Amino acid sequence: MSASPVATPAPPNQTTPTIPVAALTRLLTGTGESVAVRAPGNDTELGVVPTQREDEVAHVVASARAAQREWVRWPARERARVIRRFSELVHQQREAILDVIQAETGKSRVHALEEVIDVVLGAAHDARTAPAALRDRGRGGAFPVLTRATEVRHPKGVVGVIAPWNYPFTLAATDAVPALLAGNAVVIKPDAQTPFSALTVLRLLREAGLPDGVMQVVTGPGETIGPALIDVVDFVMFTGSTATGTTVAQRCASRLIGCSAELGGKNPLLVLEDADVDRAAEGAVRASFSNAGQLCISIERIYVAEPLADRFTAAMVAATSRLRLGVGYSWDLDVGSLVSATQLERVQRHVDDAVARGARVLAGGRARPDLGPYVFEPTVLTEVPEDALLAREETFGPVVSITVTRDDDESVARANDSIYGLNASVWGSAHRGERVARRLAVGTVNVNEGYAAAWASHAAPMGGWKSSGLGRRHGREGLLKYTEAQTVATQRLLPIAPWPGMSNAQYARFIGAAAGVLRRVR
User: Which residue has the higher pLDDT, 144 or 468?
Assistant: First the structure.
């Protein structure tokens, strides 16, 4: 019989807070059909949002393009001033922002806080570092003294950000901010389930001093609004499934515009023989069940060294059973709801398939309609066969499997045996953990942490290998991807060609001798 997490129904006063629907929807310009947005925590209506017709998207982008021509004239330090103020406003208004995030997603308040803190710190970092990263840089010219080369960074123009439902505030904000700092305009298409978080980002940026039109939000069905947006912008930032990301990349390629994409993952956690078992188990629980597992970089597979397997499994099951599960706006809840019936069905299907193929449920394993329409218990399984859906496909829910391995080599081999390569976690001594981390075919590895250490390192690039994505967010790469590099080379005194009166043969001897010298110093 499996252990169940602690059920914590919402207290009577924990009703859905009132969010400023009218003020937020006034930021939209669409005249298409209005759609109701529902709270997944209790399936009540949050508000009604007007959508864009497909033909209106081009007009929105055209107005953003017109606003961008003035925005790019602002010095980078002045653009950074707006973003610093935005960071301050997010910090000051964090409680109201948490209400919006929770209402739209059903996640617990502590997991909604991750979004807010990420935006506060990420925007502050980008504002501090962008002016220096964007400045003109002298580069080595063709000939010393005679040639001066300068690298100049220009904005792409209008950046389309297609944001997901799982982290709707931070992934709208932290993808838009570096694009804005680089001098671009931004048009965000949020997921239809979570428009109010993106609109909150827009409201706060305008309050911080962003000129009207430089950032706009378009709403509507992804299958129509998404392609319409891609067809008129100059660069696309997409977060979502690998299948949709592939379609986005193909459509961008047909127009010869760039794109960056963070896609799916089947992220592994490795417990090495010298790991602290209790610390690893607590970390694995956080890494597996944050946002009810609906996190691109959360853990879905655990590989534990055989000598520690029994102790680790017992510790993890015990830690899972202590989680406080439910829907509400109290800080006392650890894990909230899934976002929709579709997500609940996927999670249940993966668990049922694994059990039908011989897996054992050690904790959780059930939907909890008594707590909320889409609540699913944090679930730990073992003996999951390799042909199970749970072993190969991204589940994107509060479900993790434990597999026992002989040694580091087997753990690494199993961890790398996936089409995905987004994030990983390694638990053990720092030296051994970092050595194993470098063997994993993923974009980020956290040693003695699940995901937050890499995610919150805003100066370092973050993104996926293999089928987990293209490009990077964060760091210098996350800013400069929104720019075009231009080289301006100025030649002085002498041309790079035969001088007047010099024969081609003489020039060949001269340039050959010069190349022999320059190759030693360039």
Answer: 468
DSSP-derived letter for residue 457 is: -
Beta bridge partners of 36: 48
Cα 149 to Cα 29, 136, 142, 497, 499: the distances in Å are: 45, 10, 8, 18, 22
List active site positions.
262, 296
> Are residues 422 and 381 both part of a single domain?
yes
* pLDDT tens figures, 381-403: 999 999 999 999 999 999 999 99
Mean pLDDT of 189-210: 98
Order of strands, sheet of 137-139, starting from the edge strand that comes earlier in the sequence: 137-139, 147-155, 483-491
The pLDDT score that the predictor gives to residue 6 is 63
**Count of structural domains within the chain:** 2
CATH number at residue 118: 3.40.605.10
* pLDDT in the model for residue 12: 44
Report the chain's terminal Cα–Cα distance, integer Å.
Answer: 69
- Structure token digits, residue 325: 């599960």
CB 379 within 8 A of CB 351: yes
Q: Give the pLDDT of residue 521.
A: 84
Crossing angle for the helix pair 76-92 and 195-207, to the nearest 10 degrees: 120
- Measured CA to CA, the distance from residue 229 to residue 226 in angstroms comes to 5
Q: Are residues 100 and 196 in the same domain?
A: yes
Question: Do 394 and 418 touch, CB atoms closer than 8 A?
Answer: no
Q: List, in sequence order, every residue forming a beta bridge with 427; answer none if it has no partner.
A: 271
C-alpha to C-alpha distance for 476 and 73, rounded to whole angstroms: 22
Distance, in Å, from the CA atom of 391 to the CA atom of 279, rounded to the nearest integer, reads 25
CA distance 241 to 235: 19
| Containing structural domain, residue 401 | 267-458
DSSP letter for 291, please.
G
Structure tokens at 348: 């249940």
